[in-house]
Design brief:
about 40% strand, single chain, two-stranded antiparallel sheet, alpha+beta
Amino acid sequence: MDYSFAEYERDIEMGHEIEFRYKGKVYININAKDGYGFRGDFKDIVYYKTPQELLDNGTINGKKLRDIWDEVAVITIF
C-alpha cells in the first residue's frame, strides 16, 4: 500500500489505528482512553498524551518513525 508519512500523521490525528510491518516485525498505533498508544512487536504499549507527541517521539530501535517510514509496509488502517 502506498501510504505517505503525511497520510499517517493525518490518520493518527483523526484517531485511526494503523498496523504496519517494519523489518519483519508488526507494530500498531492505537487510540485508547490512556492516550495514543504505540506497540512494537507485541510488547508493552507506550502511551503518549497527544497524537503529535506520538509522531514526535515514537521510535523503533532508536529511529524516529518519520525517518524509517519509507521502509514501512502498512497492513491495516482501522
